[in-house]
Amino acid sequence: MVHQAEGTLCYGERSLRLEPRVMDVLICLAAEPGKVVGKEALLEAVWGGAYVEEGALSQAVHSLRKALEDDARQPRYIQTIPKRGYRLIAPVVSAVASGVAAESVPAPARVPQPRWRVWPWLALAVLSLTAVLAVWFGRGTLATVSGRQEPPPGDGQTLRIVVLPFENLGEPDGSFFADGLTEEITKDLASLAAIQVISRTTAVAYKGVRRPLRDIGRELNVRYVLEGTVRWALGPAGKRRVRVTPQLIRVVDDAHVWADAYETDVEDIFKVQAEISRRVISHLGLTLIPGESPLPRRKPTENLEAYRAYLRGLELRNQPFYSERHVRSSVLMFERAVDIDPGFATAWAELSQAQSYLAFNSEQSPEQVERARRPLERASVLDPDLPEVLLAQAYFTYRCLGDYAAAEEQLVAAARKIPNNANLLQTLGFVLRRRGRLGEAIEKLKLAAALDPKTIRLVWAIAETQRAMRDYGQADAYYAQAISASPDQVAFWEDRALNKLDWTGDPGAALRILKSSPVRDDPRLSSAYFLLDFYSRDYRRALDWLTPRNLDQLAPQLESQIITLGVIARERMGDRRGALAAAEANRVTLAARVGSHPLDAAHRAYLAVTLAQLGRADEALAQIEEAHRLVGQDAFAGPRIFEVEALMYAVLGQPSEAVGRISRLLAMPYQGAVSTADLRLNPAWDPLRKESAFEVLLSREP
């Protein structure tokens, strides 16, 4: 039996409690048994129109599968329909229809209003999933399903706290006030070295979730929880008032350490936020280190509409899984905030951060760099010592200027003001990777993940860094952890499979990973399938993956790599004419990408290989030289250009030049580092196999 109101699955005297979001997903699927329920529809129904990524949905589905001991690869209950949604394939019978007395049916659970408009049948309170629960409870299993990771290790001394999203008890339009309180209090506490504060990005996952605080505390490995409510009211003369009731709770015994109530004019809400932060610091007995003075902070803005737009921008950008679409939407919100209040320094800083992200990941051009520079300059004029401005400066130096030494200095300086900021620690980890200090980078990324455990991309980043160090076993463990938390993320499966290939040299083992995934039919996996067939020398099947539809789903840099290798596949088949035609088509495509993304070294490097395939050696050498110049300081991704250069020399018939570069690469860690398994399998290196120096390389440990 599924009791929606109680949030439990029951069979006989046994029961299992589900998170409210997880329960809502189950109810949505159970209302349409056997039918595909789209991802967008589920997101709208369960999250009520809030801005969340698909990763939140996939985590909820993963929790359901864990509860039911279901297998996404061979589902008995919940089936993933790639690119569309999910389907409940177990039989469903309404409790009343099956003879359960009507008075035994619990009252419907309270569901946010937006959900009712889309899913009116969410009022179903009890459902009987006979095939599911009879099997599941028959095993005598009883557990709380939360989809949590193991808590991060702690030193037992540092206090850890989470500021849960304050609950809005008024009109829905007032929810941004509650969000703003949570945001500002989190910032206040995170500015102290004596306490670790769970990131707002993770805390927001508990918005609207009603679960025992002890469970939440255990999931997040915190000793204290700060929660509260916010209620709007209309005061004398129509003036808006707000009532805030915070409470600080010790997790281990649910003891209320402190609680209070504040009623004030809406315009004075930031004074209330500062007072709450002061009281929390006092009741926790935190000792400030010399020079530490987090309060009072300057009010971020006098204009509440500007602040609303700013919060919406943060909500859009800070998804557990970044996407270009959400980042670009956040830019619009930050721009609206600074249009309303040109003196809003924090919003200018966040606008610069979002633009810097796009300049690094999506649009590597001087024009995009300027879009990041201008708001940073404005923020620096308004409040150069603001922590958000310091972080934006470091972000710009890292993402747009590629000056990793300066970025590290700026981040270390910013850390004096915000020592426990997960975003800062994450960025510092990324900068340390670019400086070639991968061991230190992993430590920073682990600290960031401890403060922001719901952001699974941090676990993925640790896995990627372990793979760069050729520590394939550790990388596999972290990839598995990322997949466990978010099994519908295509990149996690792809990277784990390729890590397995580097580790074992067995394309079949890597293929089994892809085939076992619930996203195995996703076109974004076409590059991995191509590589495995290419390495297995099944060139015909490899080329079959390179359809326009599949290529269109790949990231541009990855597509540049795959279409370049596609020419080699045609050559190995003996189709010299087809290879030349494909190379010429690639040249046009890659030249256009270099023109639109002149700061992207990868497109230039693959253009160099393509020019070599067309016999245009001088042009190829010029492009590879420029690619090296663009990544000269990058010790993490930069060596990949040497790998592509080795491929270029192999194509040009200069094997000694190619072998020399590969020999250097095997001695250094870097992103997606070449392995001896790759050298043995990859047909691209066939022109080198007669070289004795190349044979020596193959004898090295993987």
What does this structure look like?
The protein has 702 residues and is of the alpha+beta class. α6 packs across α9, α16 (422-434) packs antiparallel against α17 (438-451) and α21 (507-515) packs antiparallel against α22. It contains 32 helices and 15 strands. The longest helix is centred in the last third of the chain and has 21 residues, at 576-596. Helix content is 55%, strand content 10%. The model is unreliable at 95-156 (pLDDT under 50). Strands 9, 10, 11, 12, 13, 14 and 15 form a 7-stranded mixed beta sheet that branches. The chain is globular and about 85 Å long.
Distance between the termini: 52 Å
Query: Mean pLDDT, rounded to whole units?
Result: 84
Proportion of helical residues: 55-70%
Low-pLDDT segments? 95-156
Shape: globular
Q: What is the SS-derived class?
A: alpha+beta
**Gyration radius, to the nearest Å?**
27 Å
Task: Please work out how many helical segments DSSP would assign.
Answer: 32
Classify the beta-strand content into a percent band.
5-15%
The largest sheet, given as strand count, sense and whether it forms a barrel, is: 7 strands, mixed
The tally of beta strands, per DSSP, is 15
